[in-house]
Specification:
This protein is α+β, with helices and mostly antiparallel strands. The chain has five helices and four strands. Helices cover 34% and strands 19% of the residues. The protein has a four-stranded antiparallel sheet, covered by helices on one side. α3 packs parallel to α5 and α4 crosses α5. The radius of gyration is 17 Å and the shape is globular. The chain starts with a strand and ends with a helix.
């Protein structure tokens, strides 16, 4: 079963730079895939199409059998992203609040939000820092915080 199907995907930025040109990719469930390339080769642009942060100018992107362009909300629930710059994902006043942001925006009950936050923070080894201000964390802790935030939405 394919979990990602990309067919003839192309993307050009506003300045005319071609980021993706007729990309085809199929990823089967259970496969381990590495996307590698030089700076500016389109890796991030490609991945941003998986959850609809960017939409295809040509081609299609299917994730878990769903056309991403036709159901952005669901795509963003299925595909979690951790950005290279973890600081760009920090939105909460405390580590706990930051990780709670996603499930709170899914309008989950408070008890469910707390459970998910606790599980995610424990999974990444940050539960003991739950009351700390996120901007005071080390670089590695910030990356783990970003991962915890994604985990709470069960992508």
């Amino acid at each position: 079963m394919s979990i990602v199907e990309i067919e003839s995907l192309s993307h050009r930025y506003g300045n005319g730079a071609v980021a993706l040109d007729d990309v085809n990719l199929r990823i089967e469930a259970g496969q381990f895939v590495v996307i590698a390339g030089a700076n500016g080769s389109g890796k991030t642009t490609l991945l941003r199409h998986l959850n609809g942060l960017l939409l295809p100018q040509a081609g299609t992107v299917i994730v878990a059998g769903m056309n991403v362009s036709k159901n952005l909300k669901r795509a963003r629930q299925i595909v979690g992203m951790v950005f290279q710059d973890a600081d760009s994902q920090i939105v909460g006043e405390t580590v706990f609040d930051d990780v709670a942001f996603g499930p709170e925006n899914l309008n989950l009950p408070e008890e469910e939000v707390r459970r998910r936050v606790m599980e995610a923070l424990e999974a990444v080894g940050l539960w003991h820092l739950r009351r700390r201000r996120p901007h005071l964390l080390s670089g590695g802790e910030k990356r783990r915080l970003a991962i915890a935030g994604v985990l709470t939405t069960s992508p």
